[in-house]
Write a structure and sequence with these properties.
The complex is a heterodimer. Chain A is α/β, with parallel strands linked by helices. Chain A contains six helices and nine strands. The longest helix of chain A has 14 residues. By secondary structure, chain B is an all-alpha fold. The two termini of chain B are 32 Å apart. In chain B, α1 crosses α6 and α4 runs parallel beside α7. The chains are: A alpha/beta, B mainly alpha. Chains A and B meet through α2, β6 and α3 of A and α1 and α5 of B.
Amino acid sequence: MSWQIELRQVGKFFNDRPVLKGISARVTAPGAWTIVGPNGSGKSTLLRIIAGLLTPSEGEVVYLHNGERLTAQRKRQAVGMVAPDIALYRSLTALENLRFCARARGLKVRDGDLLRLLEQVQLRPRAHDTVATFSTGMVQRLKLLTALVHRPPVLLLDEPGSNLDEAGMYLIREIVREQATQGIVLVATNDTRELDYGEPLVRLGS
Amino acid sequence: MGSHSSGWAHEAFAVFGKDWLLELRTRVALGAVVLFAVTSVVAAGFALAPPSAVAAEVKAALLWVVLFFAAVAGLSRVFVVEEETRTADALRLVVSPAGVFVGKLAFNTVLMWALCAVTVPLFLVLMEASVRSGGLFFTVVLLGSTALACATTAVGAIVAKATMRGALFGVLSFPVALPPLLVSIHATKASWIDDNAWRVATGDLQVLIGFMLVMVPASLLVFEHIWSD
């Protein structure tokens, strides 16, 4: 099954200030690509546009599956995203956050399945603790799980290694490597440790 | 992992369940609405002594004014809290706009019913209001509180991203909630004093049902655009 994302002359303005202009690119699964550029160059904005969280001021982002254009609903089901400014519910436990994401996406899951997922990111012992008690690294691991719980063909990562230790960085690398064999991974970063996650797709601010 | 189902009903149910779980853990909205309503009713009960001397229309107006302001105090936060805690984007990624709106509307409606379950019996006792038609009174409270939940949820969604959302919510809620408020007051008075209460209140009940039938689909259409960007 072929997944494709096309960026067609994408531009974004905030109060007439151009952040992105004329971005065109195309990615076809499987593989991983990076969006690089200095701080403030628009990496996160571009990733948010690709995720459907922002509407571009110019151009469009098209998702194709076997050549067929996806609707907004199917696009939502196809995407998993992790970003620093997308938060989890701090008053819910790790298991409750994961359960909500799974059930909202229409997955019929049992807690046993979710606990096994938490085990994979070493959060099983903290499954019943509220996210408010988690370190930033633990929150980042849980965010990764909530993005992957529905096994999306498209994974969007915005600075995925932020606040992660070496073990966490290794986990991200493994996730990107595995996801890149079957779907699309787009990583927005300016962290030198993450530049080799994939081929550069877009260089911003240059 | 289990199978996958589509449609927004399961999304709305998931949002409803998540919001109640959060509410039972933090009790922010419940605390705001119940505290406001109970304080207002108790204060009015003592201030208007003897309550039996107070006209039925005044009591009916007082009941619905208390319910309206309690709704404004608590129900408006249902969308704002997602923006303030930066969870709105997480919600946008997993749930369709229709799923979010219906889930939040269901949460606000049940919260409003819970508020009525506490406030209305207390009001009847403290204000010595005798109900002639219990069936009509129950129907009016049920429909009126649901209509108020519809109005405050719709306005809450519109103002969630605004900077002056507190002031804006009050300004917008008043005209939107005025029609259901006025007919609820009239029908409540009828259920307390009129011999032919059902006949007197039929038009009011039709307005309440019509209000919800218009408000919910219209809000859904508008919400799709408000929520997305």
